[in-house]
Amino acid sequence: MKFIDEAKIEVIGGDGGNGCASFCREKFRPFGGPDGGDGGTGGTIWAVADRNINTLVDFRFSKMHKGRDGEPGRGADCYGKGADDITLRMPVGTLIIDNASGEIIADLTEHGQIEMLAKGGEGGWGNIHFKSSTNRAPRQKTEGKEGERRELRLELKVLADVGLLGMPNAGKSTFISAVSNARPKIADYPFTTLHPNLGVVRVSHEKSFVIADIPGLIEGASEGAGLGHQFLRHLQRTGLLLHIVDMAPFETNVDPVKEAKALVKELQKYDESLVEKPRWLVLNKVEMLPPDERKKIVKDFIKRFAWKGPVFEISALTHDGCPELVNAIYQHLEQKKHSEQRAEETQMTEEARGISSIDPDDPRFKILD
Quick one: pLDDT at residue 45? Predict the structure, then answer.
């Protein structure tokens, strides 16, 4: 199935049913009075996050979603039936944006999360609501309100722990296939990967994490070169970026340092927060370097690139260095998770202390007899 990570749809809540102006005309009930019922409410459009869906392809072809209208009220105090709601199932990680205002309507980050997209209109009042001692035969009624109408933009940002970043043919797809259950297309030409791939990396039976591979980024992507920036949004939710560098490019005139610097510049143009994310340097295809010059080439690359973070030398083809990298990633993710838990517990403790520090003798908290 084709991967679709963007779609535009229109959602329209159902209109409320009109109220009814009616009078009781039963035998033996003279002056029965008004008995017009209210109209039913229109159907509301809801979005539900579903982890069993991984693409927005359904919304690429089905662009309009309209709720049913509520039934009008009738005589004999009969209220109109409310319309059934419509539920749109979307992948976890979908960002729902109002196309007109740019407002973020919802961010579906958890399975089963429910968000309202367009509220159905309320039903109109029947004339039974307008009777009084001075108006015993009211003919007033109100019409049902229109449902909300919105044009929405859906953007899917895959939820992954680790994201792969690199130039085309850097070996990202080979790496993700070597360490995970993903089986992307691999070939000896650039832009083999045309859409993001997700893979689950099993460190052990109960230890795993998710890794995301996106199409390669080249210099000038911000101006539309290559596949542009359209897939970089999938790296915004990741906790760690792996910058994979091809240390043995096929073309001899290609400088890996220049390409690595160009990629970082394109990353800055797209989103500065991506540059600030934890990023590790992964030097791939080191098995193709001359054994006696390997250390010198790697040291020269790090010096020219002015890199001060973690560095890993691997061969995605032969799997050399991959197990060590996978274990290091898992330990990093676990440490980050524990740090976040400790920070959350500290915040809860401070809030509890703030509540317990209330002075019972403060006159503002005196209980009135």
Answer: 94
Which of these, 41, 38, 46, lies nearest to 19 by C-alpha position? 38
Which of the two residues, 9 and 208, has the higher pLDDT score?
Answer: 9
Mean pLDDT of all residues belonging to the chain: 82
From the list 122, 125, 172, 136, the residue with the least C-alpha distance to 14 is 122
Sketch the domain layout of the chain as residue ranges.
6-156, 162-333
Domain 6-156 has CATH 3.40.50.150: no
- List the one residue out of 114, 91, 88 whose CA is nearest residue 13: 88
Retrieve residue 204's tokens.
């052990």
Contact predicate 201/240, CB 8 Å: no
Contact 127, 20 (CB under 8 A): yes
Q: What's the average model confidence in pLDDT over 34-53?
A: 91
Question: Please, where are the H alpha helices in 111-192?
Answer: 172-179
Note every long-range contact of 60-66, with CB atoms under 8 Å and residues 24 or more positions apart, other chains counting. Answer: 60/4, 60/7, 62/9, 63/7, 63/8, 63/9, 63/10, 64/9, 64/10, 64/12, 65/9, 65/10, 65/11, 65/12, 66/11, 66/12, 66/14
* Beta-bridge partner residues of 50: 91
310-367 pLDDT, tens digit per residue, is 899 988 888 888 889 889 988 888 888 888 778 777 877 777 766 555 556 665 555 5
162-333 folds as Rossmann fold (3.40.50)
Chain position carrying tokens 């990570």 = 5
